[in-house]
Fold these 2 entries.
Entry 1:
Amino acid sequence: MRLKLALFAAATALLPPTMGLAQTPAAPAAQTAPKPAAKDAPTAVEGVTIRSDSTAMRTSIDSRSYSVSNDLSARTGSIADALRNVPSVEVDVRGNVSLRGDANVTIMIDGKPSNQFTGEGKGDALMSMPADQIERVEVMTNPSAAYRPDGSAGIINLITKKTMKPGTSGTVRFNVDTAGRHNGGISATRRNGKLTLTGDASYRHDTQDAQQLIRRETLDTASGKFLPSTQDAAVDNAGGMVNLRGGLDYDLDKQNRLSLELRGRRIAFDTDIDETYSALNAAGAPARAYVRNLSGDMTRDNAAISGDWRRQLRGADHLLTTHLEYEVTDFQRDGDAVTRNTPGATVYEHVGLGVDQERANFKLDYTKPLPKDVKLKTGVDFELSSNDFTNFGASGATAAGLVTDPARTNRYVYDQDVYAAYVTYERPFGDFTVQGGLRAEQVQIELNDVTHGLKADNSYFKVYPTLHTGYRLSDSQSLSASFSRRVQRPGAQDLHPYRVYIDPYNYRQGNPNLKPQITDSYELGWQYRKGPTTYLATAYFRDIRDGVTDVVSDLGSGVFLTTRENLGKGRTTGLELVANGRLTKALTYNLSGNVFQNEIDAANLGFAGARSKMTMSGRANLNWQATPKDFFQANIFSSGKRLTPQGYREPFKMLNLGYRRKVNDKLSFVVTAQDAADWAREVIVTETPTLHDRTRRIANIRSVFFGFSYAFGGGKPRPEQFDFSAGGPS
């Protein structure tokens, strides 16, 4: 597979710009933005990545874009911190993201997917990556067919900062908190004639101390009683992340631009876990116990190279783009543990997991305006990916006498190739605009359990329709309606039936019979926008088939297995409200709320009838420009009780505060307090006829950061020239 990826990347790279590309219609890449609309003007129906906007929020018929430039927590925190302040988005204490209550979210950077936000360590990536390089967060709950259908909840697109200043310019930043965390970096741009060079370098040192308490009761069939057990763990994580990026844009002429980007990221953490376990028998006396100490380390290296060619053809908005990317990710986790059992002997262990990922992607997109303001877009999107998993385990009576455990040692290779083509057609009828789209995908999957010599393959063809409509009621009000079909494909390890060792009483196992989850999503929206005031109301409905969920089962003797199963079906009906405005000349607000009814039919998992629960979540943000140089900010968010197939998740909330002092146009100081009220908790409850489980996690994310940023450079105004992100000459 790796050879196939390399040959694919090399062969495609050798294609000259004129070799057949102009003959293949395609739609503009997701990272290409149209000419900016006038302030408060109706936006186009098409889904676009918004490069810049001075307003806090901007909407189109298939997306909402939120500025984080004035979010003070984004100045000193991680991407996870910035996402916590975005409407519709929730982030738990482990960095897991959900959108309107659905955790099946696709995260992109500048319209491009990345392996760093998938698989092992994706939460660590979000909690470690600095947010100060992000300008906007684009949320698409019903993306058009021009985007991949992956992620039943939708897409979160992280839009990085871009500078268009001529000459040399950049920013230096540094932040430190009271708990020993610190982060900093430098960003720079050099524009000279046809050539633009950009670069970013940053480092973040973090500590992620946490506590986990699991209280379980399992039904003992012999006595008819529930037998209790307690597992308590203190986790001490310390490490950092290095982020490097370099880019080049070169204008061959007014119609052609070539781009090259290199990026590399490294996350490295050391972990110490002190864990105790105790269980009682039917008589209430101690049955077994252990004290376990584990020391380990985790590294995640990600590197990518990409190239783009964009050609402006005759006529406005007539554009051809190609994108080629190759990405590799290396994840390693190793640990040494000693478990002192009562009763029983002391056991020494070494456990490890390695994941090597490769991904190659080629996109060709074409957009052409037609008479009567019609827009036709079409394109192809090919992605080849390979995942190589290696589990290792050894144990013994002494640290020097470890023997490889065949039950914990396994190599597994998973390849997935996706070949897609799409088309969208948009046409206005006066104040009414309609856009229809269709995406067709051929998926080929190969599984190979190398250790046991077991192979399997699967291929399927599916189409994903989308429909977006908009109606302009007045200069300040509009209506919208949309539909999209989304898919959540099982992950590589979700399909592998190998039992992964977590600790002496917990295992995790995949399910080769999993089906992809299909979601039909419907939305109705109303928008009011006048000056700084914006009101949004969106009613939505999701019909889910074959949803994938975790299921916990008791293997006996206090050992539990977590596996993945398909639900029969599910439905979500909700209403989301968003309001942005100005209370006074110096005081602005951002409010959002989401209330939804979640219904789960888990009859195929042994539950009688459907279960449903009403959930409410919301956030409030208050900004005060006390003086031209002093800016204060407070934001709070809360998520209500959430239904799960085997139980529920308790409410979650957080309060963040911030202050910025602008010394001059180049220098500013920032102070932020994250989780100022120390509210961050995660509690998950499982309730079945044979199992009661309450898991409580507390992450030490409370902090006070002090930081500064300094802008340097500038330059003389340059002559106006064609900008590929703003459309082209007619």
Entry 2:
Amino acid sequence: MCGIVGYWQRGGDDERQRRGLGDAVKALARRGPDGSGTWFDGHGVGLGHTRLSIIDLSSAGAQPMACHDAEIVVTFNGEIYNYREIAAELATKGHTFTSSSDTEVVLAAYREWGPACVDRFIGMFAFAIWDGPQGCLRLFRDRIGVKPLYWGWDGRTLCFGSELKALRALPHWQPEINAVAVGEFLQYAYIAAPRTIYQGVHKLMPGHWLNLGREDGPTVRPYWRLADVLAKGERIESDAVLEEELEALVESAFRYRMVADVPVALFLSGGLDSSLVAGVLKRCGFTPQAFTIGFESDRHDESAAARKVADALGLEHHMARISSREAGAILDQWPTFYDEPFGDHSGIPTYLVARLARERVKVALSADGGDELFCGYGGYPLVGSRMQRFEGLPALARSAGRMMDEMVAGVPMGNGPVGARVKSALGHGLVHDRVLKLSGYLAAASPSDAIRPFRSFFQPREIAAMMAVPYADPRAGAGEWPGKPMERLMATDLGEYLPDDVLVKVDRATMAVGLEGREPLLDHRIVEFAFRLPLRSRNGPLGNKHILRSILYRHVPRPLVDRPKQGFAVPIADWMRDLLAKGDVADSITVLRERLPMLRAVQLDGAVTAFAGSPQGVNRLWLLHALGRWTEHWKP
């Protein structure tokens, strides 16, 4: 795991760009504390790298890495788990290797197969290749989006990096806030690819690659798409055959994630997914150390469950508990970890468990993805039924929904057509929240859009009232996936929530302490298998994650894992009370008023009063606070 950054300034090189690349590499030092390097071709191309040594710890694995004639150069972040098999195949074609690094295999695979090399990779990756003979710069991102990759183009220079802070260090950087992304953050708590918080800067979509040649601008195209997987149709084998095949895939994926020249550990929550990883690894002969974070609040603490699983499997277990004081200290560093507005507060315990693990290891497995692949979220059946009911709504009901949506415009701030009266009648509690969601649901144009109000913290109408520029949900009208409602929800989450919330959270939290986080359940072979399963295999007699439970119960005693799903819940209400009492939230609102003029000052002034006493307002206050902290840190 590493950090990458680079540029191509067409029309020549200059010393200012070279110095800027050095600063950009330093900005990514946390991602790669074991070494760093830069490479320049003398004609406008610069590549940079920070290294976290995991495979081939010697200097032979240093980057940027060039082929023997220095015509093709790569800067690579991630792991190619099947690199040994690929190297063996390449050896039969005449390629030789001077290291045991997977980076050298990436370089040779590109020389042999060109951009199609990514089709052979099992792993997580984001890398850039300068292809001198072809005269092009190419960027690649893994299929699921485990590893981040940002890029920007101003008509003359293309820049890229693992994090936005690296791009900011380059001399041609002239950031302008993307108002739509600000609204999207307030609506969903994160910003989905390809958008970023800055205009003209993009996230490379998962499963895509970018090409920039000597003429014209960059082109982006997919090499892997979930739609192509779904087009193959549903598997029709028996449950027993499907379970056997999935178990073999799981074992293969988990074994691959243990490939390293340093010890590999495990984040263990005591939930189904992390227990599955621990149980299968134990059967395969691995006994990784397990790390768990708990909370002072018993309502949110799962550490006892994790301890029982670790004891049952004979794993060395390390655990720490979070206090409100510790959480507050992490919030002070939040903008440095997440250099784009990010509102998933479970990033706090994720950072702390990563920090705990880094005291002993350099690699840890994180069992994310099981919910999105195997129907694990408790809300899937409920939201799926809403989608199904929406399809049967008469036109009159949808028309009434649009009228209601217009009526409540501006609530809770009271500046819509009848906003003040509605505000007075509904207040800011549960009824108000439900009316806004219902109006958005009825006014939606499609079943997928109909579920978005229930997944929004601020509704688009509220955001439009808060902003001095127009706002509409940028994800509306994204299209419908095939299948039953719950299947469509999982497909949507695989493309939005998983890469742009969950995986961002894990990547930044682990990289902040120089720890490599690996995602065994997100092996693309498991993803492809899961999305061709009949729904009964994902939500069946054993409940949600039916087929995973069938496998898990063979490895971990069932009573240890058969309990209600809790997720990585955090006591955010307690934390927000502390922040309100200290005046931190009010300070964040002041920063927003002064530095983000796209937000209406009069609306922000009333925000704390409007939401502080409402259970529904806790997350809204948190988002405003997080946005204020980001703005204070990153916007001059």
